[in-house]
Amino acid sequence: MASTSVSRIVPAPPDKVWSLIGGFDALPDWLPYIPESTALEGGRVRRLKNPEGEVIIERLVDFNEAERHYSYAILQAPFPVDGYVSTIRVHAIPGEENAAEVQWSGRFNPNGATEEEVVDLFTGIYRDGLDALHKTLAA
Fold this sequence. Notes:
single chain, alpha+beta, globular
């Protein structure tokens, strides 16, 4: 099983960051790669579309409001992986009231691509997503 993780310090308190990204259906609010999200099954599943119109369906598998993290599994996507599970976490930074660390990590099995290719793919998605989050919070 392959994995990757990207962390970024963002310019906002952890509760503010979590209020923006902690909703499972909130990706269009901060992630340009996902302009459309539809909540299904009472909010436990999200149907996403990327700018090319490709559909990604994900299921929430763990959610912890108090610790500010959630995990999700991909059910359907145009990515060369299976067994994908990812987690987004917001951490407080001791002594920094107006900053937080956001960590986006995932594990997956390559399917039709090399491990290096899929690690590079998701590292890029996570990095670009956290860069976009930083820009949103800095505005």
